Amino acid sequence: MINLASTIVLFQQASKQVSFPQVAIRDDLVLLWAGRNSRHPGTINITDGKPFGKSQWYGRIMLDGELRIASHWQRENPELCDDIVNLLVAFDEEPLIMLADRNRCAFCGKLLKTRQHQLQGYGSECAKHWQLPEISKGQIELNLGDKK
């Protein structure tokens, strides 16, 4: 069993500030908080980020952190499932590294205007909502160098 409890905690913190927290790990891999009226409130849905009704649903992260990949994806696309699992585990272990170096905020999708925020992967407002640190440009570049 793969446990992504740190991701659940991150979303629980954000849900205190944001009605429906979401994060784009990649353009085609988005984590979405399930609201209180959903079948599994508080869990995290894993999708391709397209609008409801047109999106692909890959699975969910349960409240205890258990990762549940949709069985049809496991059968039909085992390589895609492996990629998704690897990205989710990496995000759970090092979310700040996984979000770094992008032009749009990983959380709200707004264009990031400063190089520091682009390197960080999120803006000041989302940092407050998600209780994430504002990281210096030098520290981000150091961490990205460690990743390579």
Question: What's the helix and strand layout?
Answer:
Elements: H1 5-14, E1 22-26, E2 29-33, E3 44-47, E4 57-61, E5 67-69, H2 71-76, H3 78-93, H4 95-99, H5 115-120, H6 124-129, H7 137-147
Antiparallel strand pairs: 1-2, 2-3, 3-4, 4-5
Structure commentary:
With 148 residues, the chain is α+β, with helices and mostly antiparallel strands. Helix content is 41%, strand content 15%. It has two domains: 1-93, no CATH class; 95-148, no CATH class. The protein has helices spanning 5-14, 71-76, 78-93, 95-99, 115-120, 124-129, 137-147, and strands spanning 22-26, 29-33, 44-47, 57-61, 67-69. Strand 1 (22-26) and strand 2 form a beta hairpin. It is globular, with a radius of gyration of 15 Å. It starts with a helix and ends with a helix.
Keywords:
7 helices, 41% helix, 5 strands, 5-stranded antiparallel beta sheet, alpha+beta, 15% strand, 148 residues, globular
Count of structural domains: 2
Succession of helices and strands = HEEEEEHHHHHH
Q: Would you identify the regions where 5 or more consecutive residues have pLDDT less than 50?
A: none
Strand order of the largest sheet: 1-2-3-4-5
| Helix content range | 40-55%
Instruction: Identify the overall geometry.
Output: globular
Give the overall pLDDT as a whole number: 88
End-to-end Cα distance:
28 Å
Cα Rg: 15 Å
Number of strands: 5
- Strand-residue proportion: 5-15%
Largest sheet: 5 strands, antiparallel
Count, helices = 7
Q: Structural class, from helix and strand content?
A: alpha+beta
